[in-house]
Amino acid sequence: MTLSSPSMRRAIAITAACVTVAGLAACGRGDDSSSGSSSGGEKAVGVSLITKDSTNPFFVAMQKGAKEDASKNNVKLTVASGKQEGDDAGQITAIEDSIARGDKGILITPMSTGVNAAIKKARDAGLYVIALDTPPDPANTVDITFATDNREAGKLDGQWAAATLAGKAATIALLDLFDDKIVSVDYNRDQGFLEGMGIDVADPKKNGDEAKTGKYTGGQGGDYTIVCNEAGQGAEDGGRTAMEKCLAKNPNINLVYTINEPTAVGANGALKAAGKTATIVSVDGGCAGVSSVKSGVIGATAQQYPLKMATLGMEAIAKVARGGEKPATTSGLDFFNTGVALITDKPAEGVKSITSDEGLKICWGN
């Protein structure tokens, strides 16, 4: 069953509609958010959910999903996060707190390779660790990852962009996550986008080392120029600043890849202020982002499903803690794929997609 099938869309929509708990006020050292009561005679299982921050709608939705699932599985849940993207120290503190508390498992969206040693310490202490959204590098740093295929998400954006250009020259801005950290979600989306465009990426795990000019082979093919790789930190203000830097290098940019939808909104603000227009593609599929597709701010976005990541991860840890079977990776991948769908109101030939109206039925966040 594919995510674009009616039955799957209904299933995801039901899952999203069920998550109606109030947002969590989680930060730094954590928020104990479960009742801790016993259900069906089973002892409560201690689990920590550690996200990158507690303000990005993606992570807020993930926190909501985990809290809802905790009560269903009799999990004593603690929610924690870094202060912002890039706060390795905040995540390390939360991991150490989880070990000290005697938790049975950790769900984490790992900030970078900087938290790998702390994750190893947790696993050595007997905790079952599941990465969500961001596969660590290397993948076996954790027991298993539940995530979007971020490479595929980027490729869908690139395939759509190449087809939409219809042979026109592409003058490209790449607005990434970091320029001082290597994170798999960052290079997989960026490099996947370029692969979807039909551009040789050189080292597939390194942003910015591809040829800056050449031919793209996606769609009808054409010339391309990569103007910039700028880090927007995954935030709207960062996206605006990054786009301003790119426009200063070349005011004729007509295609913008963005790591996520807040970055895309910031990039659009910079383009408008400069009196410019460009096709913007992104990844996430939050309700605000899908609305930006509907309004025309974003041309296409690849939708992922944080509620599914959180609920499946919570269920897996509870099951393992009670002696059940461990989850397995998706065939051909080193993680469990929670799915992706391209959302656009301008479908391109040969690129599978759903409309913004369909995406709004299964989106997450506000």
Automatic annotation (TrEMBL):
Query: What subcellular locations does the record give?
Result: Cell envelope
Q: Which residues form the Periplasmic binding protein domain?
A: 48-324
Q: Which UniProt keywords apply?
A: Signal
Q: Which domain of life is it from?
A: Bacteria
Signal peptide residues are 1-25
Q: Return the similarity comment.
A: Belongs to the bacterial solute-binding protein 2 family.
PANTHER family, alphabetized: D-ALLOSE-BINDING PERIPLASMIC PROTEIN-RELATED, GALACTOFURANOSE-BINDING PROTEIN YTFQ
- What name is this protein filed under? Substrate-binding domain-containing protein
Q: Which organism is it from?
A: Angustibacter luteus
